[in-house]
Amino acid sequence: MQDLKSLSYEELLKNITDLNEPGYRAEQIFGWLHKKMVSGFDEMLNVPASLRNRMKESFSFTGLTIADVLESKKDGTKKFLFRLEDGNVIESVFMRYEHGCSVCISSQVGCAMGCRFCASGIGGKVRDLKAGEMLEQIYHISKNENERISNVVVMGTGEPFDNFDNFCRFYELLTDKRGLGLSGRNVTVSTCGIVEKIYELAEKGYPLTLAISLHAPNDELRRSMMPIARKYSISDIIKACDDYFAVTGRRVTYEYSLAEGVNDTPECADELSGLLAGKNCHVNLIPVNPVEGKGFERADIRRITAFKNILEKNGINATIRRGMGGDIDAACGQLRRKYISGG
Ligand code: SAH
Description:
single chain, 343 residues, alpha/beta, DNA polymerase, domain 1, TIM Barrel, ten-stranded mixed sheet, 35% helix, binds S-adenosyl-L-homocysteine
C-alpha cells in the first residue's frame, strides 16, 4: 500500500480524482496531513467517512510512536526515540534557540557509511526511511512541544544522499505552501560527500544549506576516518561544492569534527586553509563526541580555538558548534544504540 503522507500534492490529487472525488478534497486532505499533522484518517473531520474508508483500503498511514524522550538538564534539548511501524527505532533531536525551534531528523534506520567515530553506523544500515517517516519526526515533535518548528537539519542517523529520492520528496513536502511551508533556507542537509548527488542536488535548485562532513584536510587522513573517502577524493568533493555554489548561490558549510591528536593539529588547520582559501564557504568545528570503543577523544577546547584562529587568519569563516544535549547521548545514533543493545 502507498504511504499517504509521502505523496506529493499532485500525486494525491491524481489519486483522489481517480476515486471520482472532487479536486478540493485533495487540498483538504493535504492540509490535514501536513498542516494539522493528524495521526489517523478519522481525524480528517471535513472528509466524508465514506471517502475516509475508501482511502483506508488504498493507503497506509505512517505511524510513528514515541518510545522515549530524554531531556537535557543543561539546555532543554530533547531527544526523541521513535518506534516505526516495523518495530525499528530511530531518533530525532529537538532544540530550542532564541530565534526559533530546530529539529534534527534521521534519514535512515542505521547507516551504511561506517565512519569510524560515529555510533550510527554500528550494525550497518537496516533500511531507508520514507519521506513520510522523515516528516513525521518533525510533526510529532512540533505537536508534542506545541511549538512551530522553524529549522530542520537532516543530520541524524543515516546518509541522506544514500536515500536521495526520498530525501528530495521529503524536502518538497516540507516546503510545500499547502503544508507546513517551511522556508527551504531553513533546511540543512548534511552528507559525507556522495559526489554525484551533490551535482544532482544543484540541479534541483533548492535554496537549502548543503553541509559536507569533511573532517580531514587530506585523503589519507580522511580514509582512516571515513570509508567513503576511498570512493571520493576531497578534491572531487570540493569541485562538486564549487559547482553547487556556482549554480545555487548558496554557501556550502564544511563540517569538521575534531578528535584529539587525530585531525586537530595546526598542520591540519593550515592544510584545510589551503583547500578552502578564497572560497565563499563556512567551516563548522565540532568537538568529537566520544563513542565508547571507537578510540576518538574530544579535542581540547584550547586546541579547537587555536584551529579556528588559524582558519580565520587565512580568511576562512569558522564557528565552533556549541555541543547541546551532551548529557543525553544527543550525538548521532548514541541513544538508539543504547536502546537496541539493551544498555
Ligand atoms: N551522514 C551524514 C549526516 C549524519 S551525521 C553525514 O555524514 O554528514 C551529522 C554529522 O555529525 C556529520 O558531520 C558526522 O560526521 C558527525 N558525527 C558523527 N558522529 C560524531 C561524533 N561522535 N562526534 C562528532 N561528530 C560526529
